[in-house]
Amino acid sequence: MKNTCLLLLISCFLFLSGNAQEVLLHEEVTADTVKPTFGPNYRNFLHSFMAYGAVFGGTEGPGSAIRYGNSGDFLFGVRYKYRVSNFFALGAEAYYRSLFYSIKQDSLKTFPDTLLNDKERLTFHNLSAGLYLRFNLEKKRGNRVGNFIDLGGYGEWTFRLTHFTRNKLPDGSTVRSNRTGLNYYNALNYGVIARLGFNRWIFFASWRFSDLFKESKNLAELPRLTVGVQIGFY
């Protein structure tokens, strides 16, 4: 009897042990070893960015002085990077660019006309695209953008030019005007870009080779250099 009970206990123990070893979760280990292809330091990376720059350099003609502290450059767009090696990448970008110049009002003013206003500004609204080469400055940086230098070029289409003026009248009222449909500017422009990046913070400079205004209009050319800072959203 004792032997029979002992055999029954051993059988029950073996039965329960076998059920306890049932596989409840199965994972494919090899799937976890596949290297990702999208990310800040992987083969492909796409992100948005925003930038603001200040205008530098002189105007190319008399009577065309600008207010430098009130003139600048605003950009917002997307940037793509293709990683060729740990030290080198290629890229492309597309963005909206608002380039604005505040015109200085004094007795020497002849640009874009001789009328004096309390405030006057020309704003170029552009759709822009660029190509660049990236040289990475960090050997080991993990899955992050890291520090880098970009060199490239851009082309843009000015789809709208706005001539804004504001004047205060003797009775205290204010008159504002926004003129569009102007025909004295070149719709297509191009230039070069250079950037020095520290992960998401990027210092940039752009130089415009083309002229903003048609040669036949005899208008003074505005400053070509813009220097500023960008922030990458990643």
Could you walk me through the main structural features you see in this protein, from its secondary elements to its overall organization?
The chain starts with a helix and ends with a strand. Residues 2-9, 13-18 and 20-24 have low confidence and may be disordered. Strands 1-2-3-4-5-7-8-9 form an 8-stranded antiparallel barrel. It has a single domain, classed as Porin, CATH 2.40.160. The chain is mainly beta and 234 residues long. The longest helix is centred in the first third of the chain and has 19 residues, at 2-20. Strand 5 and strand 6 form a beta hairpin. It has 1 helix and 9 strands, in the order H-E-E-E-E-E-E-E-E-E.
The computed structural class is mainly beta
- Quickly give the CATH architecture: Beta Barrel
- What oligomeric assembly is this protein in? single chain
The count of strands amounts to 9
Bin the helical content.
under 10%
The global form is elongated
State mean pLDDT (0 to 100 scale). Answer: 89
Radius of gyration: 31 Å
Instruction: Give the H and E element order.
Output: HEEEEEEEEE
Spans of 5+ residues with little confidence (pLDDT < 50)?
A: 2-9, 13-18, 20-24
CATH topology: Porin
Characterize the largest beta sheet: strand count, sense, and whether it forms a barrel: 8 strands, antiparallel, barrel
- Give the strand content: over 45%
Termini separation comes to 75 Å
